[in-house]
């Protein structure tokens, strides 16, 4: 497995030494700074790319958008692309690596903890709220795929987040408990928890960590892949396993002992409390995951909008024209209206 860990002493902005957006080398005047800041609660150091618009007026404060990457993703992929495109539209935008992933610190590597992932969003808002170019009263959040579920959960408790948008939002708790097609039964969940219990005992005695590989482990159920799961898997592999989105820091694995934490994650329990702050959810018409956004939308209070892009799959909204063009237009309009 390949990973890079941020230097704990690196606190100043740095010029990127490698492409900051996969497949998007022309930054169109946008300046990109590599920054680090603490996740104070969990004592990790978050690595992020801060995208500053061309011709930015340094004599006034600006609206900013924090962009969270998909489950197992890194900041150089679709979250970085969205941050770049939002910066081209005049927004300060920041894409970050979650704790335990990419260039951020956190041991063990590739541990998926919903509590930490949610806190990473709070930490990003901490950083932006204190940045000299950012108006702390005009901070929005955009969460993509798994980052969408985490961002919505964070917004329920963090009133500094003034506008919340998601793209291809994914409920990682529900999919771990049930699977996309309902293939994970109660019996299967209990067997998984039995296996995790045994694994924790082994690892606590010094044995190497076991990793869950998204390409081979079939959501841990042992059941044949359902139609939705197979379709989503193929869609995602066309992004992550090809030059479209492949990055060496994106391994496609997480620690097997992370599963119970995801089983117990219910991100939308208090989604109605986001109101009166606005919520926008963007989904592809053909995405097997669309029902996550549809269900969350039904539970949310006004003001809210569910925007469906015809013909698009889940991963089409990561980077493919014309779908991302439609999505970006909607996002820019939403943030323009709500981060004035």
What does this structure look like?
- The protein has 340 residues and is an alpha/beta fold.
- The protein has one domain (31-179, 218-335): Alpha/Beta hydrolase fold, catalytic domain (Rossmann fold, 3-Layer(aba) Sandwich).
- The chain is 34% helix and 19% strand.
- It has ten helices and ten strands.
- The chain has an eight-stranded mixed beta sheet with strand order 1-2-4-3-5-6-9-10, sandwiched between helices. Strands 7-8 form a two-stranded antiparallel ribbon.
- Strand 3 (62-68), helix 1 and strand 4 form a beta-alpha-beta unit.
- The chain is globular and about 60 Å long.
- Mean pLDDT is 92; it is low at 1-13.
Give the domain tally: 1
The CATH class is Alpha Beta
How many helices? The count is: 10
By CATH, the superfamily comes out as Alpha/Beta hydrolase fold, catalytic domain
Gap between N and C termini: 44 Å
CATH topology: Rossmann fold
Radius of gyration: 19 Å
Number of strand elements:
10
CATH architecture: 3-Layer(aba) Sandwich
- Tell me the strand percentage band: 15-25%
